[in-house]
Queue: 2 jobs
Job 1
Amino acid sequence: MTVAQPAAEAIEEGPARHGVLRYAAAKVGGALLSIAMVIVATFFAFRLLPGDPVRALAQGRNMTPEQLDLERHRLGLDKSLAEQFVHFVNQTVHFDLGVSYEYKRPVVDLIGERIGSTLLLTGTALVMAVSLGIWQGARAGWRPGSRFDKISTGISLVLWSVPTFWLGLLLLMVFAAGIGPIPGIFPTRGIESVDAPSGFPYLLDVAKHMVLPCLTMVAVVYAQYLLVMRSSVIDEVGQDYVTTARAKGLRDDEIRRRHAVPNALLPTVTLVFMRIGFVVGGAVTVEAIFSWPGLGQLFYEAIRVPDFTLMQGTFLLITVSVILMNTLADVVYHLLDPRVRSA
Amino acid sequence: MRKVICALAAIGLLALGGLASPAVAAEPAKPKVIRVGATQAMDSMNPFLAVRLVSSSIHRWMYGFLTVPDPKTLQPSPDLAESWTTSPDGLTWTFKIRAAKWSDGQPITADDAAWTFTKMMTDDGAKTANGPAVENFASVTAAGQDLTIKLKAPQASMLDNPVPIMPKHVWEKVGDISKYEADDFPAVTSGPYIAVEQKKDQYVKLKANPNYWRGPAKIDELQVIFYDNPAAAVVGLKKGDIDLIGRLAPPDFEALKGDPNIVQWNTQGRRSSYLQVNLGATTSDNKPIGDGHPALKDQRVRQALHYAIDKQKLVDEVQNGLAVPADGSIVPPMYKDFFWSATGDQKVTHDVAKANKILDDAGYKKGADGIRTMPDGSRKLQFRFSIHTDTPIEDKLAEYLTGWFKEIGIVLTTKRLDSSKFTEETGTTALFDLAISGWSVNPDPEEVLATHLCSRRPTASGQGGGTESFYCDPQYEALYRQQQKELDRPKRAEIIKQMEQRLYTDAPVIALYYPNDLEGYRKDRIAKVTPIPEDKGMLYGGSGYWPFYTLEAVSKDGDAADDGSNTGLYVGLGAAVIVLVGAGLFLARRRQGVADDRE
């Protein structure tokens, strides 16, 4: 509701600003509604899953019926569904995601401990994949059918279709273990060495641990940026303004960089924003291969147990960040592209 | 532009990362460090809460218990309790606590033990990990070094108490045990090691306890390093990032073959794998539950199934030969004192003709389609076999069973379930006919025996009670109560063997095989490790701290590793130079571009 306030004040500033703010307010309102629905859906979706979580936790352990009851009480599972729901909503709106069944610690803490390493890995991978994709896509799209186009598009599509798990393990076996003349220079797991040095060498150590997971993530996803960029550059190539620029005698590279690419960037920007939302979710597979202590790993563990509060918490975090980033993408798109504004 | 620079910085940093290893490897002083890989992360450093195997193992290396299994016989032997006596009625146990010291120099007294047990009896939050261990305790008192435990009922398994004794002077300051992470390092311990550092989901570092009453361990540091998947851990072992890894599955174990630096450890294990049969499941108030096939209520049908199974074939084909066919029940042969195996007429061997005869005699006639029907003709003998999704071993097992059962006129269809649904259907709602199951057995088999008690069936309101079979048999119950009271170990073992025999012949579960303990370690790093039991025993995941207390490291650090890191240095340098030059060129071109833009 605080968003609506400035929107009202903005009327005096002219119709254009007013439009943007009203648009933003509508989008934010929509996002809040989505989040509310996600909270409700999360609760019921995870309750619909089969299985008694307490029994699942006790699997393979010596648990007497008395102790199982105690556990049910501890987890609040002895209350009615309605009570559990009210409790859950009340907790969630206060940013309390409950206590993990497995770790017996607040989910918020568990997420807090791991979000940094996830953002580092997925963030770096995103930046690299986007840069690589945009650069190759722009060049490929500028001369579709050229050798560069064929090779770069081909390679990216092959990598796109490769299963992440397979590629990751392959990289691990080749570059971490070493095969034949190739020495295993990269570590097999984690974000840092056990006896990690401090200061600048520590950064190097982390960087070294990041190489393989980052490479895996970039290799598997950069094709989407490449393809989107390529097709939107192809659209621009035939445009009148490009012909005009050519007629002015500008160098080809310059036309591409200064005229075509900025115009072609818009769809990619949308895509990037949508992907940023998923950055928080980490990369479950990549983190599992390289034992990267991030959110993906946490989610993976939560499913394996299954640890319902932890699953709920991470699921909520991921969906909410996707919703927020989508909303942001809508708003940014609106600001970037005059055509969206007038439409 | 800023984005591009960020990307370049990231690339540069990654390239420089290639150089980091030599810098780390060049550190001078070399303590003797052994690194153990684990494919599970710690759930908690707090022994009152931790339930995962990796956590309880680490806690075993850190804390003393009342008793510890003897490394040779696996019988309870003195640990923090030097000696003990039992009252004639078996209800009062008096333990003499060893006059040793905590790692912070404070004396260990009976008060520490009394505080630990009393905390668990009075605080629900402290029951999480080992609650059942104190359920039978009436009171615990301490006087000097004497600890007196009064029981509600006799309990012969008292000497296999799984509770680590905690230092009262440290832990009584903890407010809410159920929320305490135990992350104050160094920890105060009484066992061979002291936890000094933990990076969550990454590693735990333990240092040898110099005050340990048996004398300090022969290595300086023990690290437990977590891997998220076994394939990566095997790569880590081959490369030398870790020195030992336990609990391997047959394919991962076989991947270690041929490596001259690695010892493949293949010995008897502590686990038994069995079929769970729905023999007419009931709740704890004896009301039927679930939809089990009525034919399975008939012991003769269960017996026929048992005869149809070729256990040796399962071992060879499903477990790659890395298991022992089960001629006994749920207690594996590793526990010599308690292991029972069938002999003579009782022994069920793979005999299809006999299985067919049993079913013919019992009136289950084969129809025209070769499938048997119930004696009253009401239903065909078509059973479901519940297994977990995505477990190739269980899929293979299902294929073999389906083939064998077909030969005796029984149709088996495989039902794949995700683990929580599997647990519910086979442990609570009884929506199954046959299911795969297994249990890792402790030196004292009481807890696995208890999983077949009437009281473990689900409650009337349909909540699971921890049964492994929905079994409820008066004879078995009587034997269970008898062994609880029998404090004479050989006599008790006899009763326990009778229980196993009962399970074998009545067949609520059909033991298939005992998977071997599969591990691997680097002999260029580990000079000596003693398994538990010493004769063909386990390294990781066994009970007690012996293997890790007796670890000896190879004194000189392998030269081969140094060569490797030098090569690594050159390749790393080369790669870094290429990437940096490339990045530089790219940057230069972009600079040009920026200049163009600014014109």
Job 2
Amino acid sequence: MRIVFKTNYMQDIRPWKDTYQLCLYLIFLALVAAAPWWLDDFYLGELTNVLIWAIAGLGLMILTGHTGQVSLGHAAFLAFGCYANVILLEAGVPFLVAFPLAGVLTGLAGVTVAIPALRLHGIYLAIFTMALSILMDDVIVLAEPITGGVAGKYLGGVEIFGFLVDRWGTPVQFFWLVLGVAVLVTLGYINLMRAPLGRSFIAVRDSEVSAQAMGVDIARTKMISFALSCAVTGWAGALMGMFSGAFNNETFSVLISIQLLMMIVIGGLGSIHGAFLGAIVIGFLPQFLSISKEYVGAIFGGNTVAIPGLEFGIFGMILIAFILFEPMGLYGRWLKIRTWFELFPFYRKDMFKRQKSYLKTERLR
Amino acid sequence: MDNAQLLISGLANGCVYGLIALGFVLIYKATEAVNFAQGDFMMLGAFVTIGLTNTEYMGLPFWLALPISLGIMGALGYLVDRLIIRRLFGESQTAVVILTIALGFVIRFVAGLIWGHEPQTLQNPLAGKEVRFGGLVLGMEDVAVIVVTVLLTWGLYVFFSRTKLGLAMQGASQNQLAAYYMGIPVKRVQGFIWALAGVVAGVAGILFAAKGSVDPTTGLLGIKAFAAAVIGGFGSLPGALAGGLIVGVIEPFASRYIAAGYSQIAPYALLLAVLIFRPNGLFSQVRVKKV
């Protein structure tokens, strides 16, 4: 067991705990960055997909995991970012300007949404955002001159400093682009969470009354949280558009919103790791299912009939299991395993036990 | 005359939304949780009844199958609470929301496995009969839907506001700990309300399957019913019915007077408007606590 003895405050708010941890993450990052040399093109594409989902998950994590505002409508912002990016590119704006701008625009859209949403609590907010997500689908169809409607839009490669970055043509460059964005967003996130703003997010999540008593401006905090969350989600949407190459109103349906929320729940709400772990589950589940289906089919006599809805069914079951048995998600499980090893003979079963709580109505405030 | 016809068919549709919304509100009123799988419960209720009555399955007589399927749905609702929801007792609403969404996925998957993905209709004694008055043509099913919904809403309303058990349920939702102190068996009350919600979903499913066809994705109708419940102000039973009727009526009129594509949008646009201007619904149950 490593003991970190903190001697001053700067050490306490440092983004990493000690040099050992920093080295570990740097080695891991180097390993992932070197993926093109140890993965073939198919799995590189899958890894890119996972990273894009992770960015989207980070976006939602800011809002849901750290500010406690449940959003069932982040697909709307994915769509917004995606279309903003494409429309700017088509207008002749270079990618390095269009891409950040797409995120900023999505952030502004998020603020616009946040103004009415600030009055809503808990379940009402979830429904409000869900309605937004459903409406976005129809808005894209109705705004056909801009968005291409049902026919959708296409996006080929983009040029960055004279290099062509294209999902199909140059998957390696595209992977590095996505990885770069993911790393930057993660670093920004880590920094945010140790700044006063990030702390006030957590304060609002844990108790609005207490946060208010400590001088946190709740409306402002929620608004900023919305803006940041939507901006990051917008970037993820832009990357998703580049990844799929072609997209229309159905690419970002309300099911994607739900999937995104479930992803961060499986990963572990309120942790940056959770977004990545959840994305790995989401990204590799379809592959895992098809592989295991082939495997089962090989044993029981070549029965490889496609079962519609299987993916969502399995997904639902995994999720139920997680909420019942591991509410902290995969990251929570990892924490428990790590603690077990660190404290080896002294780990107790009730160490992470939840406090017993009773619910009170939200209808009386 | 056209408008009257649109209104009537809208009302009949709205009653189905209202019935699903009623399920949402029941559970919300008594447990402060929101069951996102209510639409899928309805779909399941429809399929259970189809499985019992339709000649290609078990072929039981309709009036015999009716109580059986409602019983099955009630038992199912109770089991969902007993096995899954009760483990989250006292946890935040969000956990329950996510759990029930996942449950909806699972129910849809299982229903698809058992009954397939083809749309099916319920063979029922009301099918094909019509009622005419003053030039309006009404299907018997539509009349049945409207009558049953109004009766059910009224019955549940009386149950909640007059009976001891109904009041106990409201108490249990407002403050679980205080309800315990008052001697209310909170967990048992919750189990009962989930069973009741299952039965209501079963009624909604039977009526829906009698009116039109169902397939496993029908449960997504629950989202629209959700809009209805919120418009009515979550937590108010007559509000749920009113919300359902508003959504049901606004759909055909929007597609007729604005454009075909707008019938999908109208309920949600209305929902957004209601949430923006009256954040707690039209029939708001929220009261600010006075210190």
